[in-house]
Specification:
single chain; 631 residues; mainly beta; ligand-binding face of the semaphorins, domain 2; five-stranded mixed sheet; binds 2-acetamido-2-deoxy-beta-D-glucopyranose; Semaphorin 3E; Semaphorin; chemorepellent activity; Semap_dom_sf; disulfide bond
Length: 631
Amino acid sequence: MASAGHIITLLLWGYLLELWAGGHTADTTHPRLRLSHKELLNLNRTAIFHSPLGFLDLHTMLLDEYQERLFVGGKDLVYSLSLERISDGYKEIHWPNTALKIEECMMKGKDVGECANYVRVLHHYNKTHLLTCSTGGFEPLCAFIRVGYHLEDPLFHLESTISERGRGKCPYDSSSSFVSTLIGTELFTGLYSDYWIRDASIFRSMGRLSHIRTEHDDERLLNEPRFVGSYMIPDNEDRDDNKVYFFFTEKALEAEDNAHTIYARVGRLCVNDIGGQRILVNKWSTFLKARLVCSVPGTNRIDTYFDELEDIFLLPTRDHKNPVIFGLFNTTSNVFRGHAICVYHMSSIRAVFNGPYAHKEGPEYHWSVYEGKVPYPRPGSCASTVNGGGYRTTRDYPDDTIRFARNHPLMYQAIKPAHKKPILVKTDGKYNLKQIAVDRVEAEDGQYDVLFIGTDNGIVLKVITIYNQEMESMEEVILEELQIFKDPVPIISMEISSKRQQLYIGSASAVAQVRFHHCDMYGSACADCCLARDPYCAWDGISCSRYYPTSTHAKRRFRRQDVRHGNAAQQCFGQQFVGDALDKTEEHLAYGIENNSSLLECTPRSLQAKVIWFVQKGHETGKEEVKAMSS
Ligand SMILES: *[C@@H]1O[C@H](CO)[C@@H](O)[C@H](O)[C@H]1NC(C)=O
Ligand SMILES: *[C@@H]1O[C@H](CO)[C@@H](O)[C@H](O)[C@H]1NC(C)=O
Ligand SMILES: *[C@@H]1O[C@H](CO)[C@@H](O)[C@H](O)[C@H]1NC(C)=O
Ligand SMILES: *[C@@H]1O[C@H](CO)[C@@H](O)[C@H](O)[C@H]1NC(C)=O
Ligand SMILES: *[C@@H]1O[C@H](CO)[C@@H](O)[C@H](O)[C@H]1NC(C)=O
């Protein structure tokens, strides 16, 4: 060994330190696990569908858990993909415009790309058919797609004989903002409905009820809106009281100091609104809207507002009247950039619509609360038995009610999020968040909402947030960062299937599926599993595996999980490696020669772990920490 006297053997000790996730050292900016596109494929955790035609230009997706298909609408095509394995057994409808139609479109001054047929609507229509609408080369149209009623039924074709004009049902172009929802046979849309993409409106069409829309060019109703989502949410058991909610952003007239201020909005109407008798004929007579606020309380009482609504997700609960609403926002403030997620309960939304109306006496006046007499029936309420039943339809409403609704579409109060602050804020500029889907999970220590957040660079973040009642603070834990697409492309659509524990993710050119969890990856030790704090996973006595809240008591005895605190010391007491496992999961010994280089591994699997190397010169001397060269 030290024979030559001047060559000294070095002993290099490497320790892998797993940081306390629950304590003050918890690191919220790094995910616990980061999985590359390749790793996800190798683990068989994802599958990817690429269009065999080489292009997709995805615009809409429809999840059908009953038929076990994912329907995807793109440029000149509709696909039916298998929910089980998205890359296998696809069916295709090729649906280009005719040469004549393309020619006509180009004569109007549009280019070839714009004159393609972009599929923008896909809804379940009845047991055998989907409703689809497309831009048709600046001449929108709607048609039905025959799908198999039974799983084995391989039908998937366009009923080309029954197509109809799509104005008000689908935009003329492929890129303007658009939302739609089908209620029974009535199609509700929020869109720019004309050739020039100027006429922003909310429409109802197709069904038994009369066609109806918002008034033309009334900036009090809609002022350059960008539509984000629309959903029917019942108020009670009386179907006549059902309401449709539209989520959008628009230029806020009431932000008097700055004409360009954008606010996020919730707009609402009665499903059975058929307009007024003398005023608002064939126009919505129950439309109301309110500001949707997502802000962080600041020092000096100056709050930071996130006003650009990017995505909305409705988490269903057992009570179909009260889904939990998740909003993903960004801020365009020139002071700083960032994203936030806020949660809203229906009770606070309803309270604002039942509250005071906003009022402006005239051009010279400021916006204020309306303090005068509110007509009966209350403007914005539906013609239903719940509302006294005195009115069969909105056409029977007194002119006062209709006129008031027309002049006071805005509510005075804003809708505030649960806990009056976001559940998640990202201002580090590392991720641009675009899409959100949520799964509610039962864990050993309670219920958690797992957020799946799609970014603009092909990544999905899996995050939980934990509210601390005493501190009134929110802790976020990034469980996983998943590089779904090989290329850093924006995620434009996400559908979630809790039943299948799969997330379906669309980019412009491909569709991917990814399983919610892969518990093995956290490591097999009890401490590794507990520190992961993944509500889907628990240590089962042997490995880190899927946690089922309903499993038998005998099996449960061995279960170790602590999502709230990640307290592995307590959970894994008496297990192998306890004590040790917390601060010394692994130890490596390497030999080296002085003045020569040795490679010291320093990237642990878990991004919340840390590797520290110590060097010992000879056997007698003490260990010294090796400091990484700062580069
Ligand atoms: C290693 O390098 C240092 C400085 O470069 C020198 O002082 C020392 O003698 C060298 N040791 C051996 C064993 O070569
Ligand atoms: C991958 O997962 C699918 C189900 O999603 C399964 O059918 C297939 O057999 C798996 N392949 C491998 C190699 O495990
Ligand atoms: C579903 O709707 C389509 C289009 O209107 C119609 O042709 C078909 O008969 C309907 N199917 C059922 C089962 O009602
Ligand atoms: C914020 O959201 C709007 C609407 O989706 C989008 O146009 C804008 O690019 C977003 N800004 C950032 C910085 O992500
Ligand atoms: C340094 O190490 C490399 C390989 O580990 C060896 O080839 C080389 O001879 C060593 N140099 C000295 C000066 O010991």
